[in-house]
Specification:
With 229 residues, the protein is α+β, with helices and mostly antiparallel strands. The protein is 40% helix and 14% strand. A hairpin with a 4-residue loop joins β2 and β3 (46-47).
């Protein structure tokens, strides 16, 4: 639109343009007119070239309703996710290394047998005095795929924004995360982050006492005593 390649925008209804009240209004009243761009919302009967359809009170009211609908949906989704966490259901997008999602129930984790032994080795090596960095170096020297590369081997579309190399390697941080993750003793710690509301996408850490922790949610790979050591 700003480069002059588009001079008309057609959508099914106003909610398809956007549900954010302020931004949608800015497009309708400022951006589209400034670039001589015609806007048509078919189901709502809006056409900026036809002044008889431009009832601004109605447009603002519909935009506000669309925004409120988005907020209401967000609250319902949060409530459902909280309930699932309290029921011991796994709600994250990707299973942690060492587990896969049950094909018959995506909210349940089952052991990834192809790397069970790797998890056990990591804990045993740490118990025998090896540092996280040394463990990572040993895994790399043995040619064992890192968690990210293993996800790719499983056909999972997973991207990590901090990846620097074409092939991701094991590092001390990934080892430490495994050693501190209670998922390996069958415990789920979820709802660790939150946002103030549905319009803010940046997530912040919640205090640990606000996490939702449920034990015995799935098969453990590591015995509790070994994990605590």
């Amino acid at each position: 639109i700003t480069s002059g390649k588009v001079n008309c925008v057609i959508v099914k209804d106003l909610s398809r343009l956007g549900r954010e009240y302020i931004d949608t209004g800015r497009y309708l009243l400022s951006i589209f007119p400034a670039h001589n761009t015609r806007f048509i919302a078919i189901n709502d009967g809006v056409d900026t070239n036809d002044t008889s359809t431009m009832d601004f009170i109605r447009l603002h009211f519909k935009n506000l309703i669309n925004d409120m609908y988005c907020g209401d949906t967000s609250l319902k989704v949060r409530s459902i996710l909280q309930m699932k966490c309290k029921n011991g259901e796994y709600v994250s997008a990707f299973a942690p290394y060492g587990y896969i999602k049950n094909p018959e129930n995506k909210n349940q984790l089952i052991v990834d047998e192809t790397v069970r032994s790797v998890i056990i080795d990591i804990f045993n090596w740490k118990l025998n005095g090896m540092s996280a960095l040394r463990i990572a170096e040993k895994l790399n020297s043995l040619g064992i795929a890192s968690p990210m590369e293993h996800k790719r081997e499983l056909g999972i579309k997973y991207n990590y924004c901090f990846r620097k190399n074409t092939t991701a390697k094991w590092d001390a941080k990934s080892i430490t995360r495994i050693l501190q993750n209670k998922v390996y003793i069958g415990t789920l710690e979820q709802s660790k982050t939150t946002t103030p509301n549905y319009k803010i996408k940046v997530r912040s850490e919640k205090p640990k006492d606000e996490w939702i922790t449920v034990e015995n949610c799935h098969e453990a790979i590591i015995e509790k005593d070994l994990f605590e050591q």
